[in-house]
Specification:
Layout (H helix, E strand, L loop, with lengths): L9 H7 L5 H13 L4 H4 L3 H19 L14 H33 L9 H7 L3 H5 L6 H7 L13 H4 L2 E9 L4 E8 L9 E8 L6 E7 L12 E6 L11 E6 L21 H25 L3 H5 L13 H13 L2 H12 L5 E2 L16
Parallel strand pairs: 4-7
Antiparallel strand pairs: 1-2, 2-3, 3-4, 5-6
Length: about 375
């Protein structure tokens, strides 16, 4: 998404997507978004609020025209109908993929300050004399805040990751055919931590409708000397009785969001691993896939609602509130150990089978939101 010079009009796109109830639905969605105020919005300057409101308008269009691609396998008993459905779905997805691009491009421009939003006369008066507003471009910390407000991705972002993620300009995803799966792209501005401008994460699957994970591949990050966020320097005292009295210094792996780009390797099918190792790998891969799916299905299409924290309320789009309530009730009856285990399982919501490792787990139908 390096070129954003093409002209763009939300009105033109709206008229192109004919729907008799579009106007009413747009107003209903916009009113719903506006009805959930947050501390984030209240603390923004008028200029910044105008930018966020413009991002909401874009997100409303994305929500209206999102193709429905969920299909419960029990709904189709005939292979011929199933094949026809997949064929038509692929055509529909390709159509909407093209229609979404101007919306994502417009969001990119607003977030990164290459396009400005005009203020109303009232907001302009409030904004006069605010030197801070004149200096700030776009919406600072947009993607960092969105990631921190989602319960799955927030677990991965540590305090020492925050400065690096301030340079995150955009997150995109695309479907891949050879091999089948999807790829995430994280676009970064020049920063003091690593040389890469784009970090990618690809998931290869055998079956897209009931994902069978073959493997995940991430970018090798080219860190600047002393700036690696996935390792830390540890000094340890020499062992008692050792002739060396100086502390021993070594590098040690540590928690970081950027570990996401170094996924665990799936062993070859003929490689012999014990049951405990297989279960551990299965759980790790399930969690990794859940993070990737969350970024693809929730963070990217609804980024502004995660930024404003409105998505945390579960008001804008369906969140399994009933399931969450059941989990809470179970936690209250369990001891601390069971409670921690429940939280871990809750985080691994996007389960799928990994080829050659473990057993098939339950996974909700995979809805594509491009």
């Amino acid at each position: 998404m390096s070129n954003h010079k093409d002209s763009f009009s939300l009105a033109d796109l709206t008229s192109a997507l004919k729907d008799e109830d579009r106007a009413g639905l747009m107003n209903a969605l916009k009113n719903k978004l506006a009805g959930h105020s947050s501390d984030v919005l209240e603390n923004l300057t008028p200029q910044m609020r105008a930018r966020v409101d413009a991002l909401k308008d874009i997100q409303v269009l994305l929500a209206i025209d999102q193709p429905v691609t969920c299909l419960n396998s029990t709904q189709s008993q005939h292979d011929e109908l199933e094949a026809k459905f997949r064929e038509e779905r692929a055509v529909l997805e390709a159509k909407y993929e093209k229609l979404y691009q101007p919306l994502y491009a417009k969001r990119y421009e607003i977030v990164n300050g290459t396009t400005e939003i005009e203020l109303t006369p009232e907001d302009t008066k409030m904004d006069e004399g605010d030197d801070k507003t004149a200096e700030e471009k776009g919406v600072p910390s947009f993607w960092l805040t969105a990631l921190q407000n989602n319960e799955v991705t927030s677990e991965e972002v540590t305090e020492h990751d925050e400065e690096a993620l301030e340079y995150l300009k955009d997150i995109k995803w695309c479907k891949t055919e050879e091999p089948k799966g999807f790829k995430l792209e994280f676009l970064f501005d020049s920063n003091p931590f690593f040389k890469n401008n784009v970090l990618t994460k690809s998931y290869h699957v055998i079956d897209e409708d009931e994902p069978l994970i073959e493997k995940a591949i991430g970018t090798e990050i080219d860190w600047y000397p002393g700036k690696c966020l996935t390792q830390r320097i540890v000094k340890k005292k020499p062992k008692k009785g050792s002739t060396n009295t100086k502390p021993v210094t070594k590098m040690e792996d540590c928690e970081s969001f950027f570990n996401f780009f170094n996924p665990p390797e799936v062993p070859d099918e003929d490689e012999d691993i014990d049951e405990d190792r297989a279960e551990e790998l299965q759980n790790t891969m399930e969690l990794d896939y859940d993070i990737g799916s969350t970024i693809r299905n929730k963070i990217i299409p609804h980024a502004v609602s995660w930024f404003t924290a409105e998505a945390m309320e579960g008001q804008e789009f369906d969140i399994d509130d009933d399931e969450d309530d059941d989990d809470i009730e179970e936690d209250e009856d369990d001891d601390d150990e069971m409670e921690e285990d429940s939280k871990t399982k809750k985080k691994k919501g996007g389960r799928s089978q990994i080829v050659g490792v473990g057993q098939q787990g339950e996974r909700p139908p995979d809805c594509k939101q491009q």
